[in-house]
Amino acid sequence: VTDHPPPNSGRSDGQITDDQKRAAAVAAAALVEDGMYVGLGTGSTVAYLMPALAARDLKGMHYTASSPATATAATAVGLTVHSPEELNRRLDIVIDGADQIAPDGWLIKGGGAAHTREKILAAAAARFVVIASAEKAVASLHAPVPVEILHFGATWTLEALAPAKLRDCPPSPDGNLIADYLGAIDDPAALASRLASTAGVVEHGLFAPGMVSDILIAGPSGVTHRSGAKAPA
Ligand code: 5RP
Fold it and tell me: Does the beta carbon of 204 sit less than 6 angstroms from any atom of ligand 1?
């Protein structure tokens, strides 16, 4: 019997993870300033970002979203979302989640099948900020790596990607199939190069450290900030 219950007593792992996702999203929202051009990622961590941005009551904002789901969630809390073509300008900041974050800054993304659009936004951003709960930090990357592929010739594309299989999930925001590469990831750069050069591949979910400016990982004792390899523009 103890007088003092342990921290988080009575809370499920899922609730603790959700609290961490919210904490990382709130920390990232604090980096956004009035008048910025902002890209919004996709996923359950980013779902906490839109209310956090709305609560800041920022002025003169220009938002774009990496998926219809994010656009809907942003609009629901009063953020006005534009297409990239309407913005017609590079982005000041993009904030997005990740499935795995390696110590050297490599990421796996695409658990929500939106990694192609997410990579386009990240590449167009002066600052790309990754937000995550603690369990996303891994010692080394492991399968699966999501790969968006065209319907046309998908069987041959999958053969070329082997070991890989189609994921049973809705299509990407652009209507393409999602496959998962299931092999070892001994050398992420070499694998990224192989996946990118396979005919039929639209985009893969490996994000190189040079794309990432900041990584905010929320854990039991708060939000840890890691600087990424992408220099401020
Ligand atoms: C979507 C993504 C997500 O950012 C990634 O899957 C993390 O999602 P979540 O925050 O739900 O764990 O890459 O394509």
Answer: no
Amino acid occupying residue 191 = L
Q: What is the CA radius of gyration of the chain?
A: 18
- At residue 82, the pLDDT reads 98
What atom of ligand 1 comes closest to residue 43's alpha carbon? Answer: 11
Q: What is the pLDDT of residue 11?
A: 82
Structure confidence by residue, pLDDT tens digits, 53-103:
999 999 999 999 999 999 999 999 999 999 999 998 999 999 999 999 999
Taking the CB of residue 123, how many other CB atoms lie within 10 A of it?
A: 13
SS3 helix, strand, coil % of the chain, rounded to 5?
Answer: 30, 25, 45
Is 44 a pocket residue for ligand 1 (Cβ < 6 Å)? Answer: yes
Calpha distance 169→174 (Å, rounded): 14
Amino acid 5: pLDDT = 38
The number of the ligand 1 atom at minimal distance from the alpha carbon of 136 is 12
Q: How far is CA 2 from the centre of its chain?
A: 41
* 198-233 pLDDT, tens digit each: 999 999 999 999 999 999 999 999 999 999 999 877
Amino acid (1-letter code) at residue 201: V
**Helix (H) and strand (E) counts for the chain?**
7, 13
**Count of beta carbons in the 10 Å neighbourhood of residue 150:** 15
Residues recognised as catalytic:
118
DSSP state of 209: G
The whole-angstrom separation of Cα 23 and Cα 139 is 22
Per-residue tokens: 71: 């656009």
